[in-house]
Amino acid sequence: MSAKFLDDDARAGFERAIRTIEGASATEVVIALRRRSHDYRSANLIVGTAIAFIGLAAMLFSQHAFGLTSILFDPFVVGIIAGALVELLPGVKRVLTPPARRRQHVARAARATFVDRGVHITKSRAGLLVYISWLEQQVTLVPDVALANAVAPDALADLERKMSAAMGSGGAAVAALLEKFSPELEKALPRRHDDANELPDAIDSDLGHK
Predict the structure, then answer these.
(1) Looking at the structure, do residues 26 and 46 belong to the same domain, yes or no?
(2) pTM for the predicted model, two decimal places
(3) Residues 106 and 195 placed together within one structural domain of the fold
């Protein structure tokens, strides 16, 4: 499912959004897509423990007589397997992790990516990181200081909410919302004649591409 999010239409949409925004404003856009922003191992533990106790209860109250060795080991083996399988079910990790904790991890990962990708080193300090975390189904926008001062915080927060809500519809829908925000960025920081493309436009992604 994560690979489908960044299909050909989505890639084309994000590339078009970058061209549109950077062609109209001084904003330098960097797009980073991540499969997840944290491992959320607590979800594995919750599922594994629950399955182990359910298995143990089933064996203790079953009419079938189980051996002591089976009662001692089998539920925990099944629990370990169930916990491991949660790695294949990102939706389970999302449901079992409180929203506030997910937002915290995404925000932390976005700030780290902002620095790692050098979004803060443009001459005009007008970089904008669009950080998309697929497991959490969340988009976080990290503007550099000049852009943060020029654009209303409510406008960026509203765009974050809309883009996050659109993630279920695929990457192309998210990219379309980003492109539509171009007039707002143009009004805030119009493109100057001497603006140069200082940051790579390639999409930074660890999602598979089919």
Answers:
(1) no
(2) 0.86
(3) yes
Same domain, 110 and 166: yes
**For residue 209, what pLDDT is reported?**
43
Looking at this protein, which amino acid is placed at residue 198? E
For 50, the domain range is 41-95
> For the chain, what is the radius of gyration of the CA atoms?
22
- Dist CA 17 CA 39 (whole Å): 30
What distance in Å separates the CA atoms of residue 140 and residue 35, rounded to the nearest whole number?
A: 14
Same domain, 129 and 59: no
Burial of 142 (0-12, 13-18, 19+ CB in 10 A): buried
pLDDT at 201: 87
Q: What is the pLDDT of residues 136-177, one digit of tens each?
A: 999 999 999 999 999 988 999 999 999 999 999 999 999 999
Give the integer Cα–Cα distance in Å for 189 and 156.
14
Nearest Cα to 136, choosing from 171, 169, 90? 90
Buried b or exposed e, range 11-25, using 16+ CB within 10 angstroms: bebbeebbebbbebb
Tell me the pairing of strands 127-133 and 138-143.
antiparallel
The whole-angstrom separation of Cα 180 and Cα 12 is: 15
How many structural domains does the chain have? Answer: 2
